[in-house]
Amino acid sequence: MCGRTSCHLSKEVLARACAYRDRQGQRRLPEWRDPDRYCPSYNKSPQSSSPVLLSRLHVEKGADSSERVIAPMRWGLVPSWFKEADPSKLQFNTSNCRSDTMMEKRSFKVPLGKGRRCVVLADGFYEWQRCQGTNKTQPYFIYFPQIKTEKSESMGAADGPEDWEKVWDNWRPLTMAGLFDCWEPPEGGDCLYSYTIITVDSCKGLNDIHHRMPAILDGEEAVSKWLDFGEVSAQEALKLIHPTENITFHPVSSVVNNSRNNTPECLLPVDSLVKKELKASGSSQKMLQWLATKSPKKEDTKAPQKAESHVPQWSSQKSPFSRRRGADLLERWLKREKEEEPVAKQPHTQ
Predict the structure, then answer these.
(1) Which end of the chain, N or C, is surrounded by fewer C-beta atoms within 10 Å?
(2) pTM summary value
(3) Cβ distance 19 to 70 under 8 Å?
(4) Which residue has the higher pLDDT, 275 or 76?
(5) Kind and range of the H or E element at 330?
(6) In whole numbers, what is the pLDDT of the chain averaged over residues?
(7) CA 265 to chain centre
(8) Closest alpha carbon to 68 in 111, 33, 112
(9) Which residues pair with 126 in a beta bridge?
(10) What is the pLDDT of residues 243-261, one digit of tens each?
């Protein structure tokens, strides 16, 4: 399953990370819709708003279905046929949609039939492993393996907002297959766009943590086919829904257990029993470098603050959390591993 994610990148950085080529082969950036509704967070839970990719044809008649937009949507699909005035009164959980039963459930079958396919964006997602013989659980942060680039090696020079954004341009966001729907309040008002994340059986690498995982679209071709409902049928698109082994993870602090906690500590590797069986990955080392970079200056001190203005936006505001402190946590974790012989990466089971 998938019940918690992190998506803290600024709007500009997230758009650049989602660059694509349209049907003519032209490189483009997806256009934001309702960008003011996007609130970056290290700890997103159902009913919060998260960014999703969708075909421009869903929002503009006559548009090329290969073109994309990014729009914040409510996590937890509210079916278009729901008749109550308050969407929170929906009696069943729609934050996830099982791939093996979605054609049996009206809430998911209808939007799929209308081509309402989307890609949910995140830095990664969290999952909790139950420790055998106890009531305790160990949270993990799960994400795409990150590739070291020439840009990422020169991160120490990130002194200003533009440099800071380039640092995060190297992060590959997780792209999860989803469905969305549009609900109109029965008494009138703005339409509510909401989504669900499709889940599949876990891959072998994650099976010891949890038996379900999001359906991850690994690569531009998969993302393009899933979004382009104008050219790719639902039957063909569903062939993309399967587990992927191209994933990495590390244990994180129980700080993430409370969805109100919204700091970089949520996704930092921790010193724990689990740690001793994990090799310090290049992705974790890269995260250490990023968090060690200077805090950027504000771009616009006059910009109005949103309800979640305390969320570190990395490219446009200072974080109340000390990134140096976060880097120190990672550095201690990596130093303790330095003298140990690396072993195969697998979750700890007791």
Answers:
(1) C
(2) 0.75
(3) no
(4) 76
(5) helix 323-338
(6) 78
(7) 16
(8) 33
(9) 141
(10) 999 999 999 999 999 999 9
C-alpha to C-alpha distance for 336 and 24, rounded to whole angstroms: 51
Q: Which residue reads 């969407």 in tokens?
A: 87
Determine which of 131-135, 310-314, 339-343 has the lowest per-residue pLDDT on average: 310-314
The pLDDT assigned to 201 comes to 95
Residue 28: left (phi > 0), alpha (psi -120 to 50), or beta? beta
- The answer to whether 286 and 280 are in contact (CB under 8 A) is no
Q: Which region holds residue 152: left if phi is over 0, alpha if psi is between -120 and 50, else beta? A: alpha
pLDDT at 271: 66
Q: Where are the beta strands (DSSP E) in 171-309?
A: 174-183, 192-201, 212-214, 248-251
- Please give the distance of CA 311 from its chain centroid, rounded to a whole number: 16
Q: Which two tokens stand for residue 342?
A: 């690396």
List the catalytic residues: 2, 127
- Helix, strand, or coil (residue 112): helix
pLDDT for 329 beyond 60: no
pLDDT in tens, 192-220: 999 999 999 999 989 999 999 999 999 99
Picking from 10, 32, 36, 48, the residue whose alpha carbon sits closest to that of residue 317 is 10
Amino acid at site 17: A
Strands (E), the chain: 5-7, 20-21, 27-28, 31-32, 41-44, 49-55, 68-75, 96-98, 117-122, 124-130, 137-143, 174-183, 192-201, 212-214, 248-251
Contact call for residues 175 and 241 (beta carbons, < 8 A): no
pLDDT tens digit string along 147-186? 765 544 443 333 444 443 454 567 899 999 999 999 998 8
Spatial distance between the Cα atoms of 121 and 176, rounded to a whole number of angstroms: 7
- Provide the phi-psi class of 189: left if phi over 0, else alpha when psi is between -120 and 50, else beta: left
- Condensed to tens digits (0 to 9), the pLDDT of residues 31-47 reads 999 999 999 999 999 99
Radius of gyration of the chain from Cα atoms? 20
Angstrom distance (rounded) from CA 337 to CA 281: 11
Q: Give the sign of the dihedral formed by CA 243, CA 104, CA 197, CA 112.
A: positive
Q: What are phi and psi of 290, to 5 degrees?
A: -60, -45
